[in-house]
Amino acid sequence: MTIANSRKITAWEDITAAVGNFHLAALLGWQDVAQRYRRSSVGAFWLTINMGVLIGAMGLIFGTIFRSPMSEFLPFICVGLILWGYFSQLINEGCLSFISNTETMLQLPLPFFTYVLRTWWRNSIILFHNIIIFPIVLLLFGKFMGWTALLVFPAFFLVSLNLLWMMVVLAVVCTRYRDLTQIIQNVMQVGMYVTPIMWQPHQLPADKSMLMLDLNPFYHLVSVIREPLLGQMGTPLNWGVVAGMAVIGWGIALLFLNRYRSRITYWL
Fold it and tell me: Which end of the chain has fewer CB atoms surrounding its CB within 10 Å, N or C?
């Protein structure tokens, strides 16, 4: 009886087993990135170059349209685009965490959460490559990060907790309902425009701020990381929502995985 096919294994046991063997998920995630850029002289830094070009182009275009000081707008959109690319890829690929590992799941007795961690780590490696752009942008304007940047570490931890529970839920649901993957991709595309990524919150009319900011979970997820990098701390609402989402979300994820775990291999 193995952890992959036993009906007696709980969601909590599955997750703790995967976390306890995180090195396996990390190795698989690293190999995914290495395989994609094998024999490339620049390697994964092609992603950094592509993101840098996108940030420069979008920053100049939207900064000009909004008539924003480039020294403020370019760092803002830089962090926003990097984070949204990370969130979007994680959510979209999270939907396929089980589907894309069908052969492995049917043959090896690994915890199911390992495949979610694999997706998370693969995209986190890409994030670490892309975030190099931000200090370069700051240096272009003679700016430096302050002590508030240290808040990025607890913020990234909380944001990762939220993204992981979302990936668990979506991986289970999308394995059962394959068409949902396309719907999620469309939602993430629209989400970029209703979240302050390419526009700043103060540009929003006051009567729209509650709908597009306070009730937008991705705004809070972006803000707790972006604000410390820009010299702010983020609002108590930002931190409260992110922490609350992590607690409630993981409760939902555990229920989902516990209820449907034994059926996942039959849906593959």
Answer: N
